[in-house]
Design a protein that fits this description.
The protein contains 18 helices and 23 strands. The chain has 548 residues and is of the alpha/beta class. The chain is globular. The strands form 5 sheets. Strands 13-12-14-15-23-22-21-18-19 form a 9-stranded mixed beta sheet, with helices on both faces. It has a 7-stranded parallel beta sheet with strand order 5-2-6-1-7-10-11, with helices on both faces.
């Protein structure tokens, strides 16, 4: 029998113009979802033009949350959209920055790989970009690889990426590559009309770089009339059925259906010469949307954090609540609470009307006292509590101080001189000098105790969850906590580190060292969020019964 030839991938590149934050990641994810629903194997990758090697050292105010993959890559938050839409895992190969490209090339130059030649942007940097762009496609695992180019066309930082795309299209040919350009059609209220000139200029900048877009996706607040589509097609040198309207949507999860209505997937398949007569199967997606938009109940959950001014800093948590809310047919209303504003004096006012409280992850000492105060209140009042990473650590500190009587208990991160460092620096982190990429990152095993809330939630003993932290529960205090009523119900089997804590006498009180929000998707909502929302619903119903 002849060997089966490896699958040859087609490449779609998504660029953006006019302004940032138009939603390239959502358009890329939506197209990928449509192609996947037709039976094709699809992956998405993000190429970011900033010089950081990865987003791991970026402040959340700069770039939103840092998304972590199973293999420990610290990546752009758009990879979260990719996973949530496609329900497939991404990896280090799915996110590449200018910093990593230059780092790789410079390391090769230092080793002497270029044999004394002058190292230049073209061809050496662009060759490295192309190699990374085609890496997933050459694996034989995918029919289509979608590559999102970060930033805007015309940015200095993006030029090498745009040049690499031009070369790939030239080398592979018309039927193996597709360029989708996302642009803005602004509405001028004073004139009462949509304007196409910004789009024309954006496409012209692409053309000056040697790239003719094949499809234009036009973000707009108002429907695009046919005469405007014809004008855009004429001035931008694309066919009229390649001008796609992308109206503002009620939720990002509407966008795949909107793009199917606009026939974006059909157009892409036609232009890539992919024969596929399978209808997009989106019944489960529609079912999710129906539950999302027609909830039978609602809850108010407080999200206590120190980056709450920028909701993207907690993007995966917010989306996990959407998934879990739809699963429970419940609208989750998030109350954003800045931890720096919480004090013993105002905790009752800010927290008493909530149905649940999630204390969010983070780094540093700012806002710590507010998080501890929030945990004390919900623990004493029996309000459902969920702590993630730093949130779990603060729950441990609060319990040590207020229940176990360990005065001055703290985390070594915030107080090096604490008499009771119940949260301590991991042994392998103590002598590190570099901050980037050196935390405990990626998926690690956790063994759950059977007689626990965690086991009831997961329904199994062995799980794997993603991590991003340097500090851990100090096992020297484990017996004191167990004797005092707080149980460690999830343990890493390889190094005996505490992964999960809970209070058995509380209606719902659970803290986890890992980041469950990074594994929640539309089709597989994370069980911890599902059960937390369910507990909040039960608490809300109990309050209503008492007040009747």
């Amino acid at each position: 029998m002849a060997a089966t030839a490896p699958k040859t991938a087609k490449y779609i590149f998504v660029t953006g113009g006019v302004t940032s934050s138009l939603g390239k990641g959502i358009i890329a994810s939506s197209l990928a979802k449509l192609l996947q629903s037709r039976g094709l194997s699809v992956t998405i990758q993000k190429f970011d033009p900033y010089i950081n090697v990865d987003p791991g050292t970026l402040n959340p105010y700069e770039h939103g949350e840092c998304y972590v993959t199973d293999d420990g890559a610290e990546t752009d938050l758009d990879l979260g959209h990719y996973e949530r839409f496609l329900n497939v895992r991404t990896s280090q190969a799915n996110n590449v920055t200018t910093g990593r490209i230059y780092y790789n090339v410079i390391m090769r130059e230092r080793r002497g790989d270029f044999l004394g030649r002058t190292v230049q942007v073209v061809p050496h940097i662009t060759d490295e970009i192309k190699k990374n762009m085609m890496l997933l496609g050459e694996s034989g695992d995918y029919d289509v690889v979608i590559t999102e180019i970060g930033g805007c066309v015309g940015d200095i930082e993006s030029l090498p990426f745009i040049e690499a795309v031009r070369q790939i299209k030239f080398e592979l040919g018309e039927k193996d590559t597709l360029i989708i350009h996302l642009t803005l059609i602004p509405y001028l209220r004073s004139a009462g009309e949509l304007k196409t000139k910004p789009t024309q200029h954006s496409v012209r900048m692409l053309q000056e770089a040697g790239i003719q877009p094949d499809i234009l996706v036009c973000r707009t607040e108002h429907p695009l009339p046919d005469d405007l589509r014809k004008k855009i097609a004429l001035f931008c040198n694309v066919q009229i059925n390649s001008v796609i309207e992308a109206m503002d949507a009620e939720t990002i999860y509407d966008v795949p259906l909107l793009m199917r209505k606009e026939r974006l997937d059909q157009r892409a398949l036609y232009m890539l010469d992919i024969y596929n007569d399978q209808d997009a199967e989106l019944d489960s997606w529609k079912s999710f949307l129906s539950k999302l938009k027609n909830p039978s109940d609602s809850v108010r959950i407080g999200l206590v954090g120190k980056y709450v001014e920028l909701h993207d800093a907690y993007k995966s948590i917010v989306e996990s609540f959407i998934h879990a809310g739809a699963m429970n047919e419940c609208k989750v209303n998030i109350e954003w609470i800045h931890s720096e504003t919480l004090t013993p004096q105002n905790a009752i006012e800010k927290l008493q009307n909530l149905d649940g409280v999630l204390v969010a992850p983070g780094f540093g000492e700012r806002g710590i006292d507010g998080k501890i105060e929030a945990i004390r209140y919900v623990r004493e009042q029996g309000i459902p509590f969920f702590g993630i990473c730093l949130g779990m650590q603060m729950a441990v500190i609060e319990y040590a101080r207020n229940v176990l009587g360990l005065a001055g208990a703290h985390s070594f991160e915030m107080d090096n001189d604490s008499p009771h460092a119940v949260i301590n620096l991991m042994a392998d982190q103590k002598d590190l000098e570099n901050k980037g990429g050196t935390m405990r990152l990626g998926a690690y095993d956790c063994k759950i105790k059977k007689d626990s809330l965690a086991h009831k939630i997961y329904g199994k003993v062995n799980i794997k969850e993603r991590h991003r932290h340097r500090y851990e529960f100090n096992n020297e205090y484990l017996k004191a906590f167990e004797d005092g009523g707080m149980r460690a119900t999830g343990i890493n089997p390889d190094n005996n580190l505490v992964e999960m804590i809970e209070l058995p006498e509380h209606p719902f009180f659970i803290g986890v060292q890992f980041h469950p929000e990074l594994r929640s998707t539309v089709m597989s909502p994370h069980p911890l969020f599902v059960h937390f929302v369910k507990a909040a619903m039960a608490y809300s119903a109990k309050k209503r019964t008492i007040n009747q």
